[in-house]
Every structure is written in structure tokens, then in C-alpha cells.
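SAMPLE LOG
Freezer: B-3
Tube label: C17
Construct: single chain, 386 aa
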Amino acid sequence: MSLEKFSIIESTLREGEQFVNAFFTTEQKIRIASLLDAFGVEYIELTTPCASPQSEKDCAAIARLGLKTKTLTHTRCNLDDVKMAVETGVNGVDVVIGTSSKLRDFSHGKSINEIIDLAQNVFEYLKKQNVEMRFSTEDTLRSEPDDLFKVYEAVDKIGVHRVGIADTVGIGNPRQIYDLVSRLRKRIKADIEFHGHNDTGCAIANAFAALEAGATHIDTTILGIGERNGITSLGGLVARVYSVNPAYVTKYQLPLLMHLDQVIAQLVNVDIPFNNYITGFSAFTHKAGIHTKAVLNNPSTYEVLKPEDFGLTRYIHIAHRLTGWNAIRYRADQLGLELSDDEIKRITEEVKTLADLHPLTLDEVDSLLYAMRNKQIESEAIPEAA
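STRUCTURE (predicted):
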């Protein structure tokens, strides 16, 4: 799989609904779906209509919006559930069943052969419904590889469009994901989807490893919200792929990322983390003197992402003891103040001295710059007065 052709299955309206603070109304779901459509994701995944009467209505309402992006819903490997999903009018049905010994013993109680028989029954129905079909194992990383491959090969022969790998508890690491996807890629013809939880901080790295190994689809949510610590974040995946080649994500409306993050943060009552990929308040802020000098000369020295590609700007932080005179010069130029290098360096030393005593604001630095310019004007005016 080449990175140029991957697709995003955006699951804020399915996995994201499982986030502890998520209580989306129908109107809010429609707003989120419309924004994701404008951003350009290839798929939007919706909560199963079997979850509640309102979930069924919401699923049908979004399926009827006429979005460019395809709509999917997520169901158990159960014929009645799948029939209800099809009736909502979605473009595809994402079927899932647990394959780890833990889930087989403590959840549905079925053997691997029984899982295959159940899947055959479900997909024989779905094949006649003109919808995309995905079969995913749940808790994939704690399932026996031989069991996984037996199930995947069986559903591949049935003709599913995609099979899904789900790191349901976030236990996998990039090496494991790469190995599993690589082995699976050699055994089946169907596309491969990866769904990775972030319990141990590897969701984005695991998603990228899956793409490198041959996966074609990645599940994301806005801000990475979801069950427990959530899954691969939309912005994080975009940042990771962009860093390899910005051309790989030009199909998406990148300046909308900030708005998407802001909308979801407000709806689920959380702050956007300060160090969030792309949209965190410090994401494009430079502070250390040695960094700011280089960034002012060539931003790529300390930026792998171009803020302007995301509709954002970089910020050079100067009101602190680590500032350098190049950063102070940059601020003076922003203010339209013509000061000599010696004057800028004197102000820089004054800023450092004051910052050792107490926190400084940008207004205080600006006052020093204006004061120096006023002194300059006064000294220039004295000979004329004489």
C-alpha cells in the first residue's frame, strides 16, 4: 500500500460517542457530519442503529443528507442487527465480532468455526444489499494469529470489501502492527482497515505502521476521543502522513482542522491540549533563542509542518529570559520600528534581566522597544533645536 491512496474512516459519530463526555444531539451530529464532509474524509462511521431508537433515527437522518463522503454504521455479527443497519440507508455496514479467547469465553461464547458460520450467514445477506461490507475482529492483538487468518481468509472468499484489525485495548506496538498487517496482506485480496486505541500512547504510530505495511483504511476521531483514552486522532494522523509528504493529504481541507477540534472540544467540554498536533496553542510557538534565529531565517529548520498549510501562523515568543536578539529584531520589524543592531541587543539584555526577576508580557517588551525608538527620535531632534 502506498501512502498516497489511504482512506480515512472518521468515527467521531461512532467511537467518539463512547467518550465519557459525549452526548451529541441529532442537530450536533448533523453539524459534525457536515464538517467532516467539508473536510473531505472518505467515510463517516455512525453508531449502530441497534443502540437506541434515537440512534436509529440519527443514522437514517445522516444517511439521507446527500453527503459526498460515504456513510457507514457499525454492527454486531448478527443478521437482525445487519438488516436494521441496511434499512437506515447507509452506504456500508461494518460488522464486528470478538476473536480473542477472552471475548470468546466471556462475551459471545462462540468458537472460531462458529464465528465463520455466523459471518457467512450475515454476508450472504449483505451481498444482495448493494452496500460496502467490512468484517472486523475485535481484540485482534490478543487473538491467536492462526485463528485470525482462518477467519479473515474465510470472509475474504465470501467477498467482503474490507477486513478490519482492531487493537481494542491499545496493547499493540508499531512493530507488532506492521508484522500482522504485512502477513495478512499476503493472504487476502480485500482492503485492510486499522482501528487502534491509545491506552498506551501508540495509536498514531500504530496507524502509520499499518499503512506502511499495506493497510488501506484508518479509523480516526476528532481529538482522538473515544472509549477510555480514545483512538487515533484525525489531526494526529494527518500530521504524521504530512510529515512524509504534504502531497499525501492535500485531498483534505486542512485549514478546517482547527475548527473541527474547537467544535468537538466545546461539545464534549474539554480543552484542546496545549501540545495537540497542529491545533494546540503551542504547536507553532518558538521560544529558545537558538531556535528563533534559525526559524526566522528558514522555518523548516525547526518546523516539519507548515502552519500556513493549516490556515495558521507561527508565533515567536520573546518575553522571557531565553530570548535572542534576532527574535527582538523580528518584533521590532513587526511594529515598524527602525532600530539599530546595538539598540536591539541592549533591549534584549534588558528583557533577559527583567525576565529573571518576574514574568514578562509582550506589552512590556513592546514598551521597551517604543521607549528606545522615542529616545532615538529625541536625540535626532536636539541638533535641529540648536
